[in-house]
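Milestone 3.1: sequence recovery, worked example.
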């Protein structure tokens, strides 16, 4: 018997949120999906399928054997409910220590799990969001850090009628419309820092209408963004 634990968690979370938590909260409450990843250690393993080298950011970016545990949660500010998860390996064979077994039946849940393990973090995160929404879990915002704040990812999330709260990376090829001018994140940060008597964090927490410019694809939507200051 094959048990789809991901599907089980998804349906259980939907039941808890929609039937037990949602009736106790008002529509004005800012509920959100939360996306994050962490290092799943398998440092003593040798023969685990799809085992790969992963940078542990909590331990000085050291390369360790294991996986990346990508998780999707839901929160209303008081409660937190885990919704979905995915153990990620790497599509890069150079950092992958062991391959997947070839004898797995393609109709099984295990085969699909192995396929999902080779997807990128943004692809997996978007897939989990779609799954959560398909079972009736609703939220107004999606919260994640700079590891997922690619313009293409933000655009796709906005097209799902979700607002974004994220930390942005300072990259030279991405510009933002700020006070009517197209500037890089570093230039915006310098402009804000010059404002006397106002804390940078308070200023950046205001809603700003931002236009992402990336390969001539545009999205114009409300969001809250924080610069990555190191």
């Amino acid at each position: 018997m094959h048990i789809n634990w991901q599907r089980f968690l998804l349906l259980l979370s939907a039941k808890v949120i929609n039937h037990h938590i949602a009736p106790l909260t008002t529509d004005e409450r800012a509920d959100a999906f939360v996306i994050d990843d962490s290092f799943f250690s398998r440092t003593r393993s040798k023969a685990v399928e799809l085992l790969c080298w992963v940078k542990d950011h909590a331990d000085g970016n050291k390369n360790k054997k294991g996986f990346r545990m990508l998780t999707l949660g839901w929160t209303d500010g008081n409660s937190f409910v885990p919704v979905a998860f995915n153990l990620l390996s790497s599509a890069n064979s150079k950092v992958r220590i062991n391959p997947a077994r070839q004898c797995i039946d393609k109709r099984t849940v295990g085969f699909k799990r192995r396929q999902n393990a080779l997807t990128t973090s943004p692809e997996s995160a978007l897939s989990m969001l779609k799954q959560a929404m398909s079972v009736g879990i609703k939220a107004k915002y999606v919260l994640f850090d700079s590891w997922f704040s690619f313009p293409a990812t933000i655009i796709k999330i906005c097209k799902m009628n979700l607002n974004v709260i994220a930390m942005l990376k300072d990259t030279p090829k991405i510009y933002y419309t700020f006070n009517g001018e197209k500037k890089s994140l570093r230039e915006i940060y310098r402009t804000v820092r010059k404002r006397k008597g106002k804390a940078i964090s308070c200023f950046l927490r205001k809603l700003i209408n931002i236009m992402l410019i990336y390969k001539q694809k545009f999205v114009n939507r409300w969001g809250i963004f924080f610069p990555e200051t190191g």
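The chain is about 25% helix and 30% strand. Residues 5-144 form one domain.
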